[in-house]
Amino acid sequence: MKTDDKKEKPAIPMLASEAPKPNAAMETQSTNGGGGTKGKKRNRKICICVTLLILLLIFIVLLVLGLTLFKPKRPITTIDSVAVDRLQASVDVLNLKVVLNLTLSVDLSLKNPNRVGFSFGNSSALLNYGGKLIGEAPLPASRVGPENTLPMNITLTLMADRLLTDTQIISDVMSGSIPINTFVKVAGKVSVLKIFKIKVQSSSSCDIVISVANRNVTSQHCKYSTKL
Length: 228
Prior knowledge:
Elements: H1 22-67, E1 76-92, E2 97-112, E3 118-120, E4 123-129, E5 132-139, E6 142-144, E7 148-157, H2 168-175, E8 177-192, E9 196-211, E10 216-227
Antiparallel strand pairs: 1-2, 2-7, 3-6, 3-8, 4-5, 4-8, 8-9, 9-10
């Protein structure tokens, strides 16, 4: 009986170097994932830096425009004319009193030389005699357009009770000339590019001499002031 020489060969053990390395593959995937996260963080930082740089450039451009092309200028309040609407004056020598009724019509203008609008709040025009307030008229809030002039007309009426105890007015009325002062102050804001708001104050003061006989203004000297 013949014996089969062909015998099943025993399995050759696999070398350690040839064995699959699942841990290495996992490490590679983990390394690749970490690199992607770092790249995203780097891109985010770059985007933030670019955005901040653009905002800074925009701010610098607006600031330069605000200080050059749109640099705020001083609005000017001008009293163009003062006319006597009514004047009644009489002297009670025995009682040392003066009966004085006076109404003035004042034309004034507010010039805005800026390239942007000028808005101002409620104000008043004042009538003074010897440093004492004797009349007042309201000036309503308004807005003057860019490089525009706003004309206004106000009526100032003397409050007679303010001069009842003033002895100097008797001498002035008897001399035929009454010196008075009109004062107008306007305060508001100039808005540059709707970002920078600058406070502005403009005022005008006029010394006026009124003729009692002719019932008109014989002298007018004005001073103007503007503050930013």
